[in-house]
Amino acid sequence: MGTVLFTAGILALIVNLFIFFLAYYYHTHSAKKNKEVLKILSAFDQGQEEIFDLEKLTSYILTFLLKVTGSPRGGIFLYYRQRNELRLASSQGIENTNSFPPLFTENAGNWALQVSKALVPLHELNTPLFEKTFPSFSGRLKKEKLFYLAALMEKNYLLGFVALDKEAVNLSLDLLEPLSNMAGKALESFYLYETSVTDETTGLYNKRFFRQALQAELLRSNRYQQPLGLLTFDIDDFKKINDTYGHPQGDRVLKELALCVLGCLREGIDIAARTGGEEFYVILPATNLEQAAKAGERIREAISQHPFPGFPDHRKVTISLGIAVYPFHAKDEESLIGLADKALYSAKGGGKNRVCMASESRITS
After folding, report:
1. Checking DSSP bridges between strand 355-357 and strand 319-326, what pairing results, if any?
2. N or C: which end of the chain has fewer CB within 10 A?
3. 72 Cβ contact partners less than 8 Å away, ≥ 6 residues apart
4. Which residues, 6+ apart, have CB-to-CB distance to 94 below 8 Å?
5. What tens digit of pLDDT does each residue of 110-145 get?
6. Nearest Cα to 183, choosing from 214, 161, 208?
7. Strand, helix or coil at 281?
């Protein structure tokens, strides 16, 4: 009897020691893991705080997530709530980015509220709600062999997705979730800033930002002794478009036109703004008379040839455009704007769908 009790006692001691060491191992391992997670999150936070450009931020987020997950390929898709548009913002390893043109969606709020996982396999996205919200998106992801989506959220708002390939399946979700949240917060900060300086309908800069940017570029022009081109244009007969086809179609024209204009400009250099109903300005740094004329004609021609959707009669949309160049035409901000406007009126009076240069007589300050 004593031997049995002794043996039972030894077994109980062994079991207790095993439980103790197991608990100690998991505690130590968990603490070490948590320390590594905090280290990674801290590195991400410090890196993104030094970025003040949306394109650079999305590239940084994607590069960081690919490194952490071990996924060699992926892309970030940003969701623009104002336009209900999903757009590829950054990619690595995706050979055919043309597979992801801008996608106009249903309001994503209903779907976003149902997201319960940090990483969602593609086969779980095959639902009527997802297909209705993001038509053809899952098919395009599958075609490019991207099989997982991580939703970037901030306060129940969908900001976009990170798409990853199958190599990300072993990702530690306790790391991805806080990383996704931090990326969402960083993107939301940019969106808040962009909302304050951009036009809601077109996504171009607004009047306030345009005036600030023009002042800054004029100072830069003086400092480096470089010319500065200013284009202004409006849509020919835009009131007739609204009256005939309705204001929703008018808004669609504005959105399409903005994309068309951006496609004609130097990315990161030229600045396009919507300052009124159908009134636009484009600032062209380091641009002389000849270059400004070419830029204006390029924009005019691109818009006149663009197949604007939504017109049952395939109507063409045209613009009239005026140009003034600093310091050739004007010596100050107000004179430059005034002369560009005057050239626009000349283009209107000359038959529309044309470009007019400001008077070549020099303006003294």
Report:
1. parallel
2. N
3. 66, 92, 93, 165, 167
4. 73, 74, 75, 100, 144, 146
5. 777 777 677 788 888 878 888 888 888 888 998 888
6. 161
7. strand
* DSSP-derived secondary structure for 314-347: -----EEEEEEEETTT-SSHHHHHHHHHHHHHHH
pTM: 0.58
Q: E strands of the chain, at which residues?
A: 74-80, 85-92, 103-104, 120-121, 148-154, 157-164, 228-235, 271-274, 279-285, 319-326, 355-357
Write down the catalytic residue from 154, 217, 256, 278. 278
**159 with 187: CB under 8 angstroms?**
yes
Helix (H) / strand (E) containing 143? helix 137-143
Which domains are seen in the chain, by residue range? 51-197 (3.30.450.40), 207-357 (3.30.70.270)
Through-space distance between the first and last CA atoms of the chain, rounded to whole angstroms: 113
The number of helices, as runs of H, and strands, as runs of E, in the chain is 11, 11
Strand order in the sheet with 319-326: 271-274, 279-285, 228-235, 319-326, 355-357
Active site residue 85: no
